[in-house]
Amino acid sequence: MSAPDRPKDGKKSPPAAKAAKGGKPAPRAAGKPPSAGSKSGPPARRAPSRPRGPREDYPTVQAFVAIGANLGDAEATVKEAMAAIGALQRTQVTARSSLYRSAPVDAEGPDFINAVVAVRTGLDAEQLLIALQRLETLAGRERPFPNAPRTLDLDLLMHGNSVIESPTLTLPHPRMRERAFVLKPLAEIAPDKVPRAALARVTGQVIQKIR
Length: 211
Hints:
Helix content: 10-25%
Oligomer: single chain
Number of strands: 8
């Protein structure tokens, strides 16, 4: 028998795997057989899931804000104010009343467009008041004289169970139960906040829901 062929460099080529007795293939090393089409090496690691977005957890209270306007496009202004209040820091609008048209009460100019929104807010009463006043300024609110017509009027009616009497803020709002343009829309979204007797006292005030 002739000697096996050798590579030119003189090194022996690795021996081929020999079959076991009986023609059966040699057993594999212990462990699970690789799946078809799998690649050698450690399995790929899954990328860690990312949070969907930052989440803020903070205590909130329910508050109510009355909205009014009687200059310019008052209906559009009131709707924009609703959206702007909901965009305030740590504040979310949870209910919006219909729009109402009312004759001025203790004010001058054309009829007002009114509404009330309920919010959940992490701002305290003073912080929320400052934020509302800033929205009035951005809407072009001017105060040339008492009870002047206004592009936007935002009144903080209630802030949780707060009872406040300070030079800048009184809560609950001291005149809210005297005004149909506050009580009607407030009763629409929070009937438990408006006593029937209070509604009866303002029936003579002209107000109409805008459909």
